[in-house]
Hints:
The complex is a heterodimer of chains A (109) and B (114).
Chain A: E1 4-6, E2 9-13, E3 18-23, E4 31-36, E5 43-48, E6 54-57, E7 60-65, E8 70-75, E9 84-91, E10 97-99, E11 103-108
Parallel strand pairs in A: 2-11
Antiparallel strand pairs in A: 1-3, 3-8, 4-5, 4-9, 6-7, 7-8, 9-10, 9-11
Chain B: E1 4-7, E2 10-13, E3 19-25, E4 31-38, E5 42-51, E6 54-57, E7 65-66, E8 76-78, E9 87-94, E10 104-105, E11 109-113
Parallel strand pairs in B: 2-11
Antiparallel strand pairs in B: 1-3, 3-8, 4-5, 4-9, 5-6, 7-8, 9-10, 9-11
Amino acid sequence: QQPVQSPQAVILREGEDAVINCSSSKALYSVHWYRQKHGEAPVFLMILLKGGEQKGHEKISASFNEKKQQSSLYLTASQLSYSGTYFCGTERGTYKYIFGTGTRLKVLA
Amino acid sequence: EAQVTQNPRYLITVTGKKLTVTCSQNMNHEYMSWYRQDPGLGLRQIYYSMNVEVTDKGDVPEGYKVSRKEKRNFPLILESPSPNQTSLYFCASSWLAGESNEQYFGPGTRLTVT
């Protein structure tokens, strides 16, 4: 079963913050985050391997709560370039990946 | 330049006509994978390979075949395409070991089966 992402879509103004959540009904052993701009391939943002881990990538960071089987992606002071669809993914068995259905984010000037 | 290439980028075909979508990477990655992307369903894994001659099914393998005879290539074969295989297909590769199993995606192949 695919991880569930929320919200499904969000519209922001430049400079606003956003949070994208990813939750799973099954245990999460790692969480991967990708961003896909319209008409392009997904691009890796970060991976969280341990519960309680937090990581940052410019103004984009993420946390991983292993007990709650969820991860959150934080976008701070959004820029136009942040627009796209964000996917969380996890492993179901060794190297078998499953992704969420995505969150469409649009940043307006 | 490190990259994953796919060919063709666009393909329109008819039901039942066998086709192959090629995927090649120049990063010496052990791991390669195929995904399909459909509206509202996100990315779903079709097949993956951990090394030459080692392949396994993902979540949606029905109707597809793969082979890994060389480390750099991982073609996706549709023996008898059907309209429900109309989709956007991505190939990806990554290292097997290490802290970051970052997957590098190819540019995608848009397939239409009529």
